[in-house]
């Protein structure tokens, strides 16, 4: 099956409409007509990262998307044509390791197959993302999308949302939890909304005083400007759980200082080497952890929770033709809080040209 996709043929190259081939349906496959796809910082990173030696650079980004089922394979039982669905950044895993058996396919010991930039586990072909008209995915990694929610605003839940949801659940965040959220971007604004819906008392840390009103509008009860030394001193030892969603390298010692006895810090935004003061971990028996994406159980749980509480991402929807502008603005953090590409009719529109 052929479909139109926005593909880059070289590092730092433009995304141009290109015909790509999606595999024929296997027994457990779902064929999805893509309607909306979020634009993630991971997409920017991938577009600027050279291919492995000897491999051709041919990248179609997009790993948080929603759409509707067109066809299903012979063995599919969970979906039928016309169903509203969503897919995240994992489309397969080994299914056999202890992580997969525990429902944590995101930690697959053989590494999960990514929605783009990965290799199909059956034929070895490269996976191509959802900046496209159609996507074929394994049933296990397709999720029921709540039809009560704006589909464009659901798309970022499949990456930004699940990235903060798993640690929230792992830490048992609920009524009485003092939750800190560092950064108020794509991940951070969803962490605030989800934390409040779970019953936590939420404090937002931001370097930008102008974001205080935004943080409170999202549900935060407290806002700390992290560049204010007095405010940071007053916040020492006041929190049980902190989600750090800042996407650039920074010193975590100041954040660790905000934790109370046995508090835990999840570093979610920046996944490179981090700098900490070991004494900040020692004093108070604090813990440093991380997380990424989510397994099947938690991902569907997130979507169901969001449907129950009316939670979606704040998005700016842009036409697929404006993808270059969206990426440029994203690189400058000029978005509140997530760009989403409108891919409806991309195949038909380009076939008419």
Q: Could you name the key traits of this structure?
A:
single chain, 25% helix, Quinone Oxidoreductase, Chain A, domain 1, 7-stranded mixed sheet, 12 helices, Rossmann fold, 6-stranded parallel sheet, alpha/beta, 353 residues
Structure overview:
The protein is of the alpha/beta class and 353 residues long. It folds into two domains: 2-159 and 294-352, Quinone Oxidoreductase, Chain A, domain 1; 160-290, Rossmann fold, CATH 3.40.50.720. The protein is 25% helix and 26% strand. The strands form four sheets. Strands 3, 4, 5, 8, 9, 16 and 17 form a seven-stranded mixed sheet that branches. A six-stranded parallel sheet has the order 12-11-10-13-14-15, covered by helices on one side. The protein has a two-stranded antiparallel ribbon with strand order 1-2. Helix 4 (160-170) packs across helix 5. The radius of gyration is 20 Å and the shape is globular.
């Amino acid at each position: 099956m052929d479909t139109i996709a926005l593909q880059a043929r070289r590092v730092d190259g433009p995304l141009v409409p290109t015909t790509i081939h999606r595999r024929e349906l296997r027994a457990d496959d779902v064929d999805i007509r893509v309607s909306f796809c979020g634009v993630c910082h991971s997409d920017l990173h991938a577009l600027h990262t050279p291919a492995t030696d000897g491999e051709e650079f041919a990248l179609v980004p997009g790993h948080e998307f929603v759409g509707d089922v067109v066809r299903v394979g012979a063995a599919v039982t969970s979906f039928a044509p016309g169903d509203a669905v969503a897919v995240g950044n994992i489309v397969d895993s080994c299914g056999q390791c202890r992580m997969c058996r525990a429902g944590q396919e995101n930690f697959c010991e053989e590494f999960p197959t990514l929605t783009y930039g990965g290799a199909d586990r059956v034929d070895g072909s490269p996976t191509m993302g959802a900046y496209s008209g159609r996507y074929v995915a394994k049933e296990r990694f397709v999720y029921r999308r709540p039809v009560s929610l704006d589909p464009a605003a659901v798309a970022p839940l499949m990456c930004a949302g699940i990235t903060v949801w798993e640690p929230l659940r792992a830490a048992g965040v609920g009524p009485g939890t003092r939750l800190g959220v560092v950064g108020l971007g794509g991940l951070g604004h969803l962490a605030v909304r989800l934390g409040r819906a779970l019953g936590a008392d939420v404090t937002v840390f931001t370097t930008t005083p102008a974001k205080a009103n935004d943080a409170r509008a999202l549900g935060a009860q407290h806002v700390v400007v992290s560049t204010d030394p007095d405010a940071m001193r007053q916040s020492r030892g006041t929190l049980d759980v902190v989600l750090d969603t800042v996407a650039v390298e920074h010193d975590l010692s100041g954040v660790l200082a905000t934790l109370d006895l046995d508090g835990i810090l999840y570093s979610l935004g920046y996944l490179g080497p981090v700098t900490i003061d070991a004494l900040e971990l020692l004093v108070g028996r604090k813990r440093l952890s991380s997380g990424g994406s989510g397994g099947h159980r938690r991902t569907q749980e997130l979507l169901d929770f969001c449907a129950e509480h009316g939670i979606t991402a704040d998005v700016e929807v842009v036409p697929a033709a404006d993808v270059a502008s969206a990426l440029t603005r994203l690189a400058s953090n000029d978005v509140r809080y997530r760009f989403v590409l409108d891919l409806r009719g991309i195949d038909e529109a380009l076939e008419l040209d």
